[in-house]
Design goal:
With about 250 residues, the protein is mainly alpha-helical. It is built from eleven helices and no strands.
Length: about 250
């Protein structure tokens, strides 16, 4: 099988800066580990599209990292044929192979080339993936403006992870002008699609009144949703909010 690029936001200190520096003394402040601030998603990407005939003999059955089975080699050959014919999903999949070195020699320039061809055709996942590349994923040279531009294209099509990432860009002004209201807008769109990290940061936004009115019940609503999906940071934020509300209520 060809590799699938995880739908992820490997944004490291980008998220830490947003949560600590921008939200400041809000619900995030007392969390014990800065590493835990990196709320990464691990959901698998969309299924690879069907590609051209997979029974054609492979010209390079053992190229790339490790030896491929005959079926895998045929799959990559078929994928390349479809990509060269302009099939956007095949272009994305071939880019993933070049990114990982699966069945071909690892080549980030080739990966970007195929991602861009698919993204230029309007494939939302390719646009999101290209944004992650320009964010500095996997050793790509970072370009925050290009990252935000491609995330914006995917976000406008309703791609939840891109909406979350674009919200992060707006939250600290990375690649775009800082705009907490725009950040909250995109997090809200992603949160409505059950994107757990967006639910967490939207909850923090309502807790701090950043880009949205300060509404504790809305903060609790979104933090509970994120916590129910296993987001430990959201659970910690809920606990802190509960303690603050109890302290305000007095004895």
């Amino acid at each position: 099988m060809t590799p699938r690029r995880p739908i992820r936001t490997r944004l490291g200190s980008f998220i830490v800066v947003m949560a600590v520096a921008v939200l400041g003394g809000g619900a995030f402040a007392n969390e014990t580990s800065r590493e835990n601030a990196v709320a990464s998603t691990t959901r698998a990407s969309a299924t690879l599209a069907s590609t051209a005939s997979s029974d054609r003999p492979s010209s390079s059955p053992s190229s790339g990292a490790g030896r491929l089975s005959h079926t895998e080699a045929n799959e990559i050959d078929g994928m390349r044929s479809a990509a060269e014919l302009g099939v956007a999903q095949a272009q994305l999949s071939l880019g993933l192979c070049y990114e990982s070195g699966h069945g071909v020699a690892k080549d980030l320039a080739q990966a970007i080339h195929w991602f861009r061809l698919a993204a230029d055709q309007g494939l939302d996942e390719a646009q999101y993936t290209l944004g992650c590349c320009y964010n500095g994923d996997n050793g790509y040279p970072p370009d925050p403006t290009e990252a935000a531009r491609w995330w914006n294209k995917a976000a406008a099509q309703g791609f939840a992870e891109a909406q979350f990432c674009l919200g992060l860009s707006y939250s600290i002004g990375q690649g775009v002008d800082r705009n907490p209201a725009e950040a909250a807008k995109w997090w809200s769109k992603a949160a409505e699609q059950d994107q757990v990290d967006a639910q967490y940061f939207l909850g923090l936004s309502y807790s701090a009144g950043l880009g949205v009115p300060k509404i504790p019940r809305q903060a609790i609503y979104w933090l509970r949703k994120a916590a129910a999906k296993g987001n430990e940071n959201a659970a910690a934020a809920l606990k802190k909010l509960g303690k603050e509300r109890a302290d305000l209520a007095g004895p």
